[in-house]
């Protein structure tokens, strides 16, 4: 995330700081904010790929799209780190297959759920959100800060709600 989405957002925020001619120390904070925001948004996207029941909200991508593309998203990496060897190898095999077979994707999702990766991803999102709130409170004025904090809280709650909905409903599609 850091070298992909985070880097792009870091660059955008860096350019904004340069064009605004803010002091170097504040520009570095702005760059860190941009990088962490990119990571935060990427993790949100990865989480929704597994847990979003309303697929229209994520571009109508099928459930487990990252699995079928063999992506090593944070959710998948946490799952691989938490699973016992046999289950870890099963998940890795499915990711390496880059399969569109829904039964294989469902098997991968069950392994991810078993690994507690979803809960650990939520904790990581909460941690990054807290870091972003700390940074933004230093960088921008109070009114804009409130808007950003509301956005971060909304995105964090969105992930928590998706996890609750997902756990209450088994994969039907």
Characterize this entry briefly.
With about 170 residues, this protein is mainly α. Helices cover about 75% and strands about 0% of the residues. The chain has 8 helices and no strands.
Approximate strand percentage = under 5%
Q: Helical amount among residues, as a percent range?
A: over 70%
Structural class: mainly alpha
Main beta-sheet annotation: none
N/C terminus separation: 29 Å
Q: Uncertain segments of ≥5 residues (pLDDT<50)?
A: none
How would you explain this protein's 3D organization?
This protein is an all-alpha fold and 173 residues long. It is built from eight helices and no strands. α2 (24-51) packs parallel to α8 (142-168) and α4 (74-82) packs antiparallel against α5. The longest helix has 28 residues, at 24-51.
Keywords, separated by commas or semicolons:
single chain, 173 residues, mainly alpha, 8 helices, elongated
Describe the secondary-structure layout:
Elements: H1 5-20, H2 24-51, H3 65-68, H4 74-82, H5 85-97, H6 102-114, H7 117-139, H8 142-168
Helix pairs in contact: 1-2, 2-7, 2-8, 4-5, 4-6, 4-7, 5-6, 7-8
